[in-house]
Structures are given as C-alpha cells and as structure tokens.
C-alpha cells in the first residue's frame, strides 16, 4: 500500500480545500495513505507566527513516503519554502509540484496566462470598456505574475494604454479589494472595469463599490479568477475563471500512485481552465437558480458549524482551567469521539521541562531564555492521546523521526491531517486527525489548532509564573550559597516550631555554629575556597539534622540550628556529635592544606512560651565561644 505526503499552507482558503477534496476522492476510490502536513500560516501572518507554524514541515521525513505533493507557493515564508524544497530535492523521493515548476520535480499547473488573457479580451471586446483597473496578487506567487503579465500584454494588443495609476498590488484578500476601490474613489478615478487576480479581491471590490453607491455591472464591471465559493455565493455572481483544483489534487495522487520516479520527474501537465462569464460583468449565466440551493447549503453548514463550535468552546473552557498540559487529556477524550474520525492523536514536547528551564533562566539575558527554548526543541515527543477506532491509549517518548509508534496503525489507508500546536514561534507539538468533517472544515480546524496552541501557552505561562513565584519565595527565605534558611526563612520556621513545641509539651534547643579559621582560608586560598568551606559546613549540618530540625546560615561564618528535644532532652548532644563526625569524614576524604573545623554551642529552651529566642541565641553563641576559646588553648 502506497503512502503519500502533502505539503501545503492555508487550508482556510477554498483553493487549498478543493485540492485536498480531490485527494480525498482519489483515496476513497483507490485506497492508500495520505498525510496532509498543513498549517494556517499565510502571507498575512507575522514572521514569528510563520516560524512556529511552519515547523510542522520539519516533522516530514520524505523517506517515509512513496511520493510527495508540494503546494510550494502556499508556503509564504521564503526561507522555509527554500528549506522544504531542498530537503525534498535531496531525498530522491518522487515529488509533484502544484502550480509552480521546480527543478527535479514533476509539475501540474493551470495556464494562468492564457486564462487571464481571455478574460481581459472579453471585457474589452464584448463590453467595449477601455478604462480598466487591475488588482494584482502577492508578488511571490508565480500565478499572480502570469496573470498580471497577461493583463498588460492584452492591453497592448488591443491598443489600450497601460496606466500605472490603475495597477494596484493586492494580497488575494477581500480587504485588498475594498482598499483599492476606496483609493480609486478618493482619487476620483473610478474605472469602467476592475479585473482582479482572484475572486476574494473581486468580492471585496464589489462590496465596496456597492457601499459607495456604484452599481455592478451597470457602473463598473468586475471580474475575478479561481471560481471559489465566494464567486458563486456573491450578489451579483462574479465573472471568473474556473480552475479545477479538485482534478489537480486527484491527478497528483493518481500519478504518484501509478507512475515511476523517472516519469514523475519529467511530468508537466496543464489542467484546462474554463471561463465563466456571469453577472458581475453583465453576462447572464445559463441555468441560473433562485438562490435556494445556496441558502440551503449555508443553513446546513451553519448548523453543523454551530454544533462543533459549541462543543469546542466547552473543551477550550476546560483547557483554560488547567494547571498543566497533561490536564488537557480529559476534555479531549470527551470531545474526540463525536468527530466521527477513525483516528486522532496529540503529541507534545516535555512542556514541564521547558517551564523548569525558563524558571532557571529567569532574570537572565534573552539569549539564555532562547537557549531554554532551543533545548526543548531537541526533545522527543510524547503521545498522551491516541484514539483509534473508538479506543483511547497513550504512549511515552516516540523514537526520533517517528510521528506515531509502530503500534498505531489506524492512520493507514486513510487521509490524515497533521497540524502544528504552537503559539507564535514556540512549537509545542502536533495534532493528527483522520478524515472527518471538522478536519476539512477550514475555519473550525483553524480555530481548534489556534485555541489549542493558545491554551498550551496560557498553561505554560501559569506554570512558569507559579514556579517563578516559588523561586522568589525560596530566594527570599533561603541562603543562595548553602541552600539553608536565611534569617527571614528561619524566623518563619521558628514560629512554627515554637507552636509545635508548646502543643506537644516538648523542649526546643538552639545550636550556634562558627567556622574555625574562615578568614585565614579566604586570605590564603581566596574566596572561592572560602565559599567551598562555607558550603561544606552547611552540608555537614544538613546531614546531621533530622526532619524536626531547621538549619540557618546566620551570616558570614555563623550558623544556627533549631530543633525539638527528645524525651531525655539529649537530642542537641546527638546533633553535635553527628555534626563533628561529618566534619571528620570531610577531612578524611578531602585533600586540603588545612583542617576543616567548626565550633558549636547549644542551649535548651524549656519555657518555650515565655522565652525570647534572641536571648537564647546569644546564650548558645556564648557557649560556642567558650568552647572555641578552650579549643584554642588546647
């Protein structure tokens, strides 16, 4: 059974939807597996958004497929487009490029130049207009360039002067059409006809003309290109060029499934286009209906969309209440069975580890925070949600380069859609959905992926904020060098210990510790060695203490331990002995030019309620001082 990968962007546009419908049709008739790698990162999105969205294509391993379909010009980020093309060229896997000739690849395209030439001639010859404005498509699109050139060439052939003031750059959006008309009206240069490089811009132009009191086609003729749904649903219906993208998608699959690699490499096929002269240029379309079919279709679509929308909103509300990404699993499991799909998978990077790294870099330079994210991008994916034929399961780390574990087979012999889970440039993982209504309903799937990415980002921010708060709390309560409590943290713990001692009827003890010879170590060996000595004494204290004792670095070379006495009030003696044994072990195992040593003095508090802790510390300090003095005398 053969397996095909598809690379495209902008499934929210009718053009791409029709391409995919042709592929779905082929698969339903002939079988095989088709993986559609896609995202909604179009040319209108920000650079950060594109960088995050386009990382979905890094997951594509060409060697895993028998052939690849590349909608190259839908990849609107030049560097990413170049990277994808080079990877596919180097792979040796048969590739068919749609709409743009690419070295080493077969090509299926439309004759955009001829189709636009016929459209411009029709407007001039059949309708007798000569003042013709043109709204161009994005400059990076080869089809837009061919259509624009056809417009200029036909004007010259027909003896109509080219006027640069009537040639406008567009971006294939409805907004581009409305903007151009507003500019023309502002300049008092409304033409006799506006030829648009696609239907969306034509629909925008018609809408703006009507809003400004112009009639279409009586005052201004408008034409489009592509024959997408907006052309058919518009009032008036738009004169356009039918590009049979379903046939293009179908043929691409057919050729990859049936032809050899050499045959595909030499492939160059043009899909015929059809002119549709309709109401927006003043031509009547044969077999016009009264609009009831359109209304019924829109009503059905609206009802279906509302149902999905309601259920999706319930899931998103649950997401926003989540504290960790793993909390998404429950809501997703409730949502997925209603999709009617054979398979559904979500894979995540280790977002918890990323949150921890971000906290570690808190307060550091941006480059270190970027490094925390880059480190996350080298991690393997985990598959917490795998839904196959009505059964949920989960998997741990996936092998490098694998989309799914070998045990998952429900994506075989179906069309599956693989989409990025990201927020701006941060790529969290991917979602893979088998063919179902929601997967091909562009606005729904775009919202699903957008909200999922936003939810992950939101949860990560909460997690990072909580971790940073905890880090700040630790920084305010702990000594950064030894990890022991500082004075603030010690005071909080001391109040708790006093309350517990009072309620349990036990005594407390205070031990005061002073490092012997720290100044001499600093002066002789430097402060790095002095820091080592301070940390070493801190470790000896921690090892000697039990869970009923709290250790503090009092400052400089001084430490304090507060603990609960045992029944015989002898715990402080046990602690002192354990502490000195730990120091002895250090001297036996560490080769230093000096002996590690510390003096300690302790004092027991029997009247916990009425004793001032500061006074007890001073008494323990005095006991330590007497012992230190005695030690010096030998």
Describe this structure in words.
Helices cover 47% and strands 19% of the residues. With 634 residues, the chain is α/β, with parallel strands linked by helices. The strands form four sheets. Strands 11-5-4-3-1-2-16-17-13-14-15 form an eleven-stranded mixed β-sheet, sandwiched between helices. Strands 7-6-8-9 form a four-stranded parallel β-sheet, sandwiched between helices. It has a four-stranded antiparallel β-sheet with strand order 19-20-18-21. A hairpin with a 2-residue loop joins β16 (415-423) and β17. α6 packs across α7 (199-211). The protein is elongated. Residues 364-373 have low confidence and may be disordered.
Keywords:
eleven-stranded mixed sheet; 21 helices; 21 strands; 47% helix
In brief, what are we looking at here?
With 634 residues, this protein is α/β, with parallel strands linked by helices. The chain has an eleven-stranded mixed β-sheet, sandwiched between helices. A four-stranded parallel β-sheet has the order 7-6-8-9, with helices on both faces. The longest helix has 36 residues, at 442-477.
